[in-house]
Design goal:
The chain has about 230 residues and is an alpha/beta fold. About 35% of the residues lie in helices and about 15% in strands.
């Protein structure tokens, strides 16, 4: 969950000749002269990330909510955030799953992220970093996390990359399920519907229905962070 990748993503979106939405790509058709200013909308997203105090506030708000919900989850043995969780999870050790997002080892942590993950570990909660980066990037990811002080443990693999569960593709559900076999998942944190549910690469209205089916989870078991601002779903 790092600033540099978000900035780079917005820059690429602003310059690209491809339009990406819900996993599908298509050529952008030519626009009439009066719409020439439209590409600048994406540049405004970059500016928002780089300069807006609201950007940092949104992160701090999300992680403050996560702090409160973590405490509530630890007190309730029947609490789980993973719909992949199976009966008997009450006896499993606690964990939180965070959609970790980093492109370069020089990236830095965003507001509230480090404090929250350290707080979780201090409470005896394992922190798992679930990312759609390829497995070949795992060691670079681990170095970045370690450098910035994010909790990692010897003997426990807490970074789950694309391809770590064979045949799953970019669906994070099988990775959540693999973790849920060994841990009671207290919270999910991410910026895309796929960080919380499987089968989300569908039409917008169907995505909204899926989101609405779990209305009580949002802001309680599922925490959405600020990366959604101005970003096309991937």
């Amino acid at each position: 969950m790092w600033v540099d990748e978000l900035r780079m993503t917005h820059r690429l979106n602003a310059l690209a000749s491809l339009s990406v939405a819900f996993g599908f790509c298509g050529l952008v058709s030519a626009q009439p002269p009066e719409s020439a200013a439209a590409p600048h909308d994406k540049l405004e997203s970059v500016l928002w990330v780089q300069t807006a105090a609201e950007h940092d506030a949104a992160y701090l708000q999300a992680f403050a909510t996560a702090h409160r919900m973590l405490d509530a989850a630890l007190k309730d043995k029947k609490w789980t955030a993973a719909i992949e969780q199976r009966p008997g999870f009450e006896r499993l050790p606690p964990a939180v799953l965070w959609d970790e997002w980093v492109a370069q080892e020089r990236a830095g942590a965003l507001p509230g992220a480090l404090d929250f993950t350290k707080y979780a570990r201090a409470k005896g909660v394992e922190v798992f970093y679930v990312t759609n980066r390829e497995t070949k990037s795992k060691e670079a990811t681990r170095r970045t996390l370690a450098r910035d002080g994010f909790p990692l443990r010897d003997g426990v693999e807490t970074i789950y990359c694309l391809g770590d569960v064979p045949g799953a593709g970019n669906d994070k559900g099988p990775r959540r399920a693999a973790i849920a076999k060994r841990y009671r998942v207290l919270l999910l944190l991410g910026d895309d519907l796929g960080d919380f549910l499987s089968g989300v690469r569908v039409e917008p209205e169907q995505r909204r229905r899926m989101m609405g089916s779990y209305a009580r989870y949002w802001g309680e078991r599922w925490i959405v962070d600020a990366r959604t601002q101005g970003r096309i779903p991937q």
